[in-house]
Structures are given as C-alpha cells and as structure tokens.
C-alpha cells in the first residue's frame, strides 16, 4: 500500500467516525428543540390563567394570614412578572415526563438489553418520586411551616408576605423535597454500579442520618420543622433504597448462578456428545 493510499484510508476512517457523532448532535438538537417548543407552548397557555394559578399556589400561606389581610406586591412589575414566572416554572415541572422521555429515547439505543430493563423502571420511578416530593411539600410541609411562622409574629407586626418572596421560598422547597425523594434511586444506582454495598450503607447509617439533617438545614429555611420534615423522609427513603438494592442484588446473584448452571449443563451435554461420537468412531474402526 502506497503512502497516498494509506492517508486516503485514514481520512475515510476519520470521516466515518465523525458522521455518527454529528448525527447524534443533530438528534440531540432536534430533541432539545421539541422540548423547548412544548415548554413554551404550555407556558403561553398557563399565562392566560396566571393569576388564578398563583392564587391556588398561595393557598397554603393565605390560610394563616391575619383575618382581612392579604399578600403584598412590593415590586413595580411583581404583580405581572411573578405570576408569569410561576407559569414558566409550572410548565417546566409539568413537561418533565416529556423531557425525560426524550432523554431516554436518546440514550436507550446505546444501552444493553439488561440495562434497558433496569433503566426504564428507574426512570419512571424517579419521575413519580419527584412529583411525590413536591406534593409532600405542598400538602404537608407548607401548612406546618406557615402555621409555625405565623405563630411567632411579634405583636404590632403586620404579617403580610411579599408574593415574589413566597414564590422563591416555595420553589426552593419544591426542588429540595423533589430531589430528596430521589434518594432510593440514587442508593440503588450506587449499589448496582458497584460503588458500595447494602451492608456498607447499613454500617454507615449514623453518618447518613446526620448528613440528612445537615442537608435539611442547608436546603430549607432556618426552622426546625422544615428541616426535620426533609431529613426524616430522606432517612426513610434511604432505608427503602437499601431494601430494594438488596432485593436486586439477590436477583442478580440468582441470575448469575442460573447462568453458571446452564453453562455447566451445556458443557456436560457437549462432553457426552463428544464421548458418544468417539464411541461410534471406535465401533466403526473395530
């Protein structure tokens, strides 16, 4: 092969390597565009009812306002911007299954069959757990936190929270509890990846409980109620993750044992076939 032929072959190989990479980039771009379009359309739809959406969103705190009072809008554009901001955030949360579907469709072709069987249930579980965390924050944590804070208002102080501050506070708690409810998924993934074992996690349980309360302190407002309401579910969900990871590891060991038994049986059958063939050959030679 001449030097020119070799350089042409190397160039062809580099072009063949670049084409799949470019096709993946094009596919990723197309999927991101679809996600952005869906979020934008839903945002526009929610903006038409942004005022009513914010009203229902603020019900947990309005129940604990002094009688005859209401929330405040201290910013110049906050009466308009804050409900629209809530519409954008709500559109992002509502389209999360659609976003994760495209993420799954993008990475699934590169996964093995056993990885697909495991990854898809974990993906669905992560979506459900995230929404459960948000629901837990709205229906359980918000009423307790606002009841606690409204009970400590000094005399002579008019407790009327700003609508923008309430939105920022609530979104922070939504993310905190949504991510906290992903603890079982993270635990299972760590065990299946071989980075740790259920026994090792159980041995580190005291440190994990302390870490849960530290995260609760960092991710929630500075009150003991919201900190505890975040730390306790994280601990319980960690225990659930350990239980499920044990079950999955036990199934993996059973599958491995069955495969080894099947391999041994195939080897025995092969040995028997070879022995039978040798016996027939020996009879023919005799």
Summarize the structure.
The chain is mainly α. It is 82% helix and 0% strand.
Shape: elongated
Structural class: mainly alpha
Low-confidence stretches: none
Beta percentage is under 5%
Please work out how many helical segments DSSP would assign. 11
The largest sheet is:
none
Mean pLDDT: 77
- Evaluate the radius of gyration: 29 Å
User: How far is the first residue's CA from the last residue's CA?
Assistant: 56 Å
Number of strand elements:
0
Q: What string, H for helix and E for strand, traces the elements in order?
A: HHHHHHHHHHH
Estimate the helix proportion, in percent.
Answer: over 70%
Your description of this structure?
The chain has 286 residues and is mainly α. It has helices at 3-47, 50-57, 59-62, 78-94, 96-107, 113-150, 163-180, 183-192, 198-203, 205-219, 224-285. The protein is elongated and about 110 Å long.
